Amino acid sequence: MLSRILAAEGHQVSAATTGSAALRLVESCEPDLILLDVMMPGMDGYQVCATLKANPQFQNIPVIFITGLNDADEEARGLELGAVDYIVKPFNEMIVRLRVRTHLELKRQRDILSRLSHFDGLTSIPNRRAFDERLVQEWKRACRAHDNLVVAMIDIDYFKQYNDTYGHLAGDDCLRRVAGALAKQMQRGSDFVARYGGEEFVCLFSGINQAGLVTMTEQLRVSIAVQQIPHSTSSVARYVTISIGAAFCQPSLDTSAFDLMAHADAQLFTAKHLGRNRVSLALL
């Protein structure tokens, strides 16, 4: 009945009749909203909700309990587990429609705010917060898959002098152009670039070998050089250039993602110390 009601509203509905099947369904389709009964064979609704809320991937999906348990303590238990609403059966169709509509709109607004909080307002690419979260996710994935992971730290050479010479508005435009050029080099779905802060950017790559790392980082450096953004006060070129420090490893449970960051940062320091407008690599 619920599937029929919600499908008539234009929603795409998937249904399961047991708790374990519901969890498998959530993994396969990642819904925007879950309507969950309490009394189910095997795993009950409370257990399903607790399992969802314990998983970072699914914990923000809103859950509405729809149940025949018309008891204040049961309702309180459901809400304490993280449900956003509690509807008692027999339910009123209009009430269900309106509450589903309300919670979907709230979810949409939260998603928009979350996306905005993960993007840099000046360059329109992901920000440091987004990168830090992505790094942890990719590290865990690479540990499971025995995959390689690369972090590349990027710094615009003599950017303070650029701002002093051309002004901060030109500096902002330079940051946007550099960000756009770097973003165009992210050719694979797993490639990731973010503004790390100030004139620093950071890239994350997985599934590439050492030869691919050399090629990729050099392409990043060249992508900025070919922009030919004038920089008359640079000591390395008459146009804007970047220095890159990259670290390559195969993550394991005995190491840390932030160790990889530290090695990439050290390589960036080396690239700048050796004269800038170059790449320095570490293979861990």
Automatic annotation (TrEMBL):
Major enzyme class: transferase
GO biological process entries: cell adhesion involved in single-species biofilm formation; negative regulation of bacterial-type flagellum-dependent cell motility; phosphorelay signal transduction system
SUPFAM superfamilies assigned: CheY-like (SSF52172), Nucleotide cyclase (SSF55073)
EC code(s) of this entry: 2.7.7.65
Catalysed conversion reaction: 2 GTP = 3',3'-c-di-GMP + 2 diphosphate
Keyword Nucleotide-binding tagged: no
Organism: Chromatium okenii
This protein's UniProt keywords: Phosphoprotein
Response regulatory domain location: 1-104
Descriptive protein name: diguanylate cyclase
Positions carrying 4-aspartylphosphate: 37
UniProt domain GGDEF: residue ranges: 147-284
PROSITE patterns named among the record's database cross-references: GGDEF (PS50887), RESPONSE_REGULATORY (PS50110)
Cofactor(s) demanded: Mg(2+)
An MF annotation (GO) of this entry: diguanylate cyclase activity
